[in-house]
Amino acid sequence: MKQGEIGVEWIFFIKDDEGNPFDLTDADKVKLMLKRESTTYERTCTIVDAGKGKVKYVLTSEDLAKPGVYAFHLVITYTNGTIIKTNICREYVEDSLEAE
Fold first, then answer.
1. Are 59 and 5 within 8 A, CB to CB?
2. How far, in whole angstroms, is CA 61 from its chain's centroid?
3. What pLDDT score does 96 carry?
4. How many whole angstroms separate alpha carbon 13 and alpha carbon 100?
5. CA dist., res. 54 & res. 57, Å (int)
6. Minimal CB count within 10 Å: which of 46, 89, 98, 100?
7. d(CA 23, CA 21)
8. Position 57 pLDDT exceeds 90
């Protein structure tokens, strides 16, 4: 990933502990929690295929504004109030070589 990427789709296939697709049929919303250093961003994902646990998020200009290590996970909220959080992942965002 590069600093300043915009419009890139992050596609997530959410799976249970056994590797099966996580059913999002009754999910009310899925949020992407993205953190760099002490700043946390909350973004709304789109459920693409609820039965396959597929969601997406499209990067904005604010999301990868600085290089460094980013931590993220998804938070699934169901219509009955149940909240499930995925494992935390970490990715390194490289510097952009273009002049600002």
1. yes
2. 15
3. 77
4. 34
5. 11
6. 100
7. 6
8. yes
Predicted pLDDT of residue 97: 75
pLDDT computed for residue 29 by the predictor: 97
Distance CA 78, CA 23 (A): 11
Name the pTM for this structure. 0.88
- Residues of the chain with pLDDT > 90, as a percent, come to 85
Which fold would CATH assign to domain 9-93?
Immunoglobulin-like (2.60.40)
Average pLDDT over residues 38-42: 94
Q: Between the CA atoms of 37, 94, 41 and 56, what dihedral angle is there, to the nearest 10 degrees?
A: -150
Query: Percentage helix, strand, coil, to 5, in the chain?
Result: 5, 55, 45
Cα–Cα distance for residue pair 89/28, rounded to 1 Å? 23
Phi, psi at 17, each rounded to 5°: -65, -20
